[in-house]
From TrEMBL:
Similarity comment: family membership: Belongs to the cytochrome P450 family.
Native species: Meira miltonrushii
Positions bound to heme: C580
Pfam families noted in UniProt: p450
Keyword terms, alphabetized: Heme, Iron, Membrane, Metal-binding, Oxidoreductase, Transmembrane, Transmembrane helix
Keyword NADP assigned: no
Protein name as annotated: Cytochrome P450
PANTHER family for this protein: CYTOCHROME P450, CYTOCHROME P450 12A4, MITOCHONDRIAL-RELATED
Ranges annotated as spanning the membrane: 55-76
Domain of life of the native organism: Eukaryota
CDD domains linked: CYP_FUM15-like
Gene Ontology molecular function: heme binding; iron ion binding; monooxygenase activity; oxidoreductase activity, acting on paired donors, with incorporation or reduction of molecular oxygen
Cofactor: heme
Classification lineage: Eukaryota, Fungi, Dikarya, Basidiomycota, Ustilaginomycotina
Length: 642
């Protein structure tokens, strides 16, 4: 269950990012000629004359460009020396492989399966072809990863096309900026996520965790009551059929009721678990948490549903939309990554419109909050939220005027945090509940550990576990580490070489003629896929059971993992100056919600032969095999505990 896409953009999209700028001028002219700005030609444009819709012309131009680039790439790689000339590589298959490279193969199976297959065959650095035959470097070698992410982080930025497409949607936050701007922004944002800051957020996490447990309980009770109601109706109509004299509840004598109950094989309702889509609930909860932590905004999506608030509604629509993109829309997204669109993004694609609505929704609320703070009318609870902390850090006397965030950059951080901090944590929670449902004895042990800790706490007259107590539970730690390793919400991310470089390898690979390759020379513009999920599951590093859920492995990690140099050993929160700024926040929130749920409910797999697959919806979400049209979901049997 891996992925070939990143939090930013589908991996395969950025196949087009490293296209050289020499195409840009000609392409822009073509764009304007066809559709984009017909008036500039003093005419209505060729599109108008040909009666092509903007979408069709966009795809047509994209296709022509990609074809030309594919052919020139092929010619280049055949006539000149490719950096990877003597490398073994996966063969691109199918009649469209000259233009689509290996991308079609990559769509089969669960996301990331093929990357793992290639890595097992070729090693921790694999060259495959993306759109237009572009050579793409898939990395899962620990030294290479640390070189790209840590040692030379700013020499391997995110692909420019993807970054600029995203910054039109998310604004200029830490996720989309590079180099000195990124360094400056991280300096202001980092203090918001220190241990002491997260300690302040913990009561909020507990409050929302309890609200989730209560809502789940209530909704299950309501469902049970509705079922009982239906059964009563059923009984009445059956009784009526058996004897027309029984026309209302009172007239049915108890023996008949028992008879009917037996006949209908009714179970004791209290012991029957409910089937609950846990993804739906965790997603609402983490959205509420991030709204309140970020700017003290109560989204109340648990109570009101995703459509109850403009922010929740827009994020919900965007995520649903990403999960149901048509082939045409996916092609649009691919083409949009061309750097030749720089300066004219965001293109009016359906996805961009939805994503922009998210930005606008957050911006309008955040502007209101900012105004209140400026006017001194903000309520006292805003004292400790992310916005207030960022504002304070920004105005600190130690920060030079030139280093301070501009108002639009502050806004960019908020949009970024809501996107980056919402679906990631809910996805991780969903996968952990699934894994624990599949491994009942592990579920039982971790529950026991949590209940014992809570009991001691209660005896001491405290309601909730403290930050230290929560993070000191060994089973909970192991389960958390293991699910993040095995099911990383962000499966991969993209980078490109800003200059020619040489990437070292920890584990040399074999070339086409058996020669040893222990370093990778890359040219400026080389596309790189940092494959988090593949690194996390490599059997040669983690052992033969690397693809299984085994939390106890964290008590005795293999020496190859310990020596990898990857901080925290798994790559799920990335590494280096661009690692996940919200890691401590996410882990604390995750543990608070999980321990509250485990103390209140037991989780079992869905009935029958339901098979859970995964699907890339920015993050890697679950869905049911054979029911793909229902979208992403994780139905589990949930039983309330006494
Ligand atoms: C289980 C939960 C989470 C996981 C697995 C996760 C993972 C990641 C990963 C892999 C990246 C790097 C993305 C890239 O470079 O393409 C990232 C970046 C980021 N994450 Fe998280 N994240 C999680 C939760 C959060 C939370 C809760 C927040 C905020 C409250 C957050 C805020 C961010 C931000 C702002 C960045 C951009 C950092 C930068 O580029 O400097 N994340 N996260």
């Amino acid at each position: 269950m891996c992925a070939n896409r990143s939090i930013i953009t589908p991996d395969s999209m950025s196949a087009v990012d490293s296209l050289s700028g020499y195409f840009a001028a000609g392409y822009r002219t073509a764009m304007s000629t066809f559709s984009m700005s017909p008036n500039r030609l003093g005419d209505k444009g060729i599109v108008h004359h040909l009666q092509l819709s903007p979408l069709v012309s966009f795809l047509l131009i994209g296709f022509i460009t990609v074809s030309i680039v594919a052919l020139s790439n092929l010619a280049f790689q055949m006539t000149f020396m490719s950096t990877f000339k003597n490398w073994q590589r996966p063969k691109a298959q199918g009649k469209w492989s000259w233009i689509m490279g290996n991308l079609i193969q990559m769509q089969k199976g669960n996301p990331g399966d093929i990357q793992m297959e290639w890595t097992e065959k070729f090693g921790g650095a694999v060259i495959y072809r993306g759109l237009a035959g572009n050579e793409r470097l898939l990395l899962s070698d620990p030294r290479a990863l640390m070189y790209v992410l840590h040692q030379r982080c700013y020499a391997f930025p995110k692909p420019s096309g993807a970054r600029s497409a995203l910054s039109n949607l998310l604004g200029e936050g830490v996720l989309t900026t590079e180099g000195d701007v990124h360094k400056r922004q991280r300096k202001i944002v980092n203090p918001t996520f220190t241990q002491s800051a997260i300690r302040d957020f913990l009561p909020l996490f507990w409050r929302h965790s309890r609200a989730l447990a209560k809502h789940l309980q209530t909704s299950m009770e309501e469902e049970r009551n509705a079922k009982m109601q239906n059964k009563t109706q059923e009984r009445l109509s059956m009784a009526h059929e058996l004897s027309p004299a029984y026309i209302n509840d009172e007239t049915i004598n108890q023996n008949d009721v028992k008879l009917l109950d037996d006949k209908m094989k009714m179970n004791d309702q209290a012991t029957v678990p409910s089937i609950v889509d846990v993804l739906h609930w965790t997603s609402r909860t983490t959205l509420d948490v991030i709204g309140e932590s970020a700017f003290s905004y109560k989204l109340n999506s648990l109570q009101r549903g995703e459509n109850g608030d403009v922010i929740a509604d827009s994020f919900n629509k965007m995520m649903t939309h990403v999960g149901q993109l048509t082939l045409l829309e996916r092609a649009q997204l691919h083409f949009e990554q061309f750097s030749i669109f720089d300066g004219i993004r965001p293109l009016p694609t359906s996805f961009n419109k939805r994503a922009r609505a998210c930005y606008d929704a957050v911006e309008s609320v955040a502007q209101k909050m900012l105004k209140e703070r400026r006017e001194g009318t903000a309520p006292p609870e805003t004292e400790k939220d992310v916005l207030e902390r960022v504002l304070r850090a920004n105005e600190d006397s130690s920060v030079k005027q030139s280093q301070r965030l501009m108002p639009h950059e502050i806004m960019g951080q908020l949009t970024t945090l809501i996107l980056a901090g919402h679906e990631t944590t809910s996805t991780a929670l969903t996968w952990v509940l699934y894994e624990l449902a599949m491994h009942p004895s592990i579920q039982e042990s971790v529950r026991k550990e949590i209940l014992e800790a809570q009991q001691i706490n209660e005896q001491e007259g405290k309601e909730d576990l403290s930050y230290e107590e929560l993070h000191a539970l060994p089973m909970l730690n192991n389960v958390t580490n293991e699910v993040m390793r095995l099911n990383p919400p962000v499966h991969s991310t993209n980078r490109e070489a800003a200059e020619d470089d040489i990437i070292p390898l920890k584990y040399p690979i074999k070339g086409e003629h058996g020669q040893t390759i222990d370093q990778i020379p890359v040219r400026k513009g080389q596309a790189i896929i940092v494959h988090i999920a593949t690194y996390n599951r490599r059997k040669d590093l983690w052992g033969p059971d690397a693809d299984q859920f085994r939390p106890d492995r964290w008590e005795n990690l293999p020496s190859k993992v310990l020596q990898s140099g990857v901080p925290g050993h798994s790559l799920s929160f990335l590494a280096g100056p661009r690692n996940c700024v919200g890691q401590k926040f996410a882990l604390t929130e995750f543990k608070a919600i999980l321990s509250t749920l485990l103390a209140a409910f037991s989780f079992a797999p869905p009935p029958g032969t339901t098979k859970i697959d995964s699907k890339q919806v920015i993050v890697t979400r679950p869905r049911i095999r054979g029911m793909e049209s229902q979208g992403t979901q994780m139905p589990l049997c949930v039983t309330p505990l006494q």
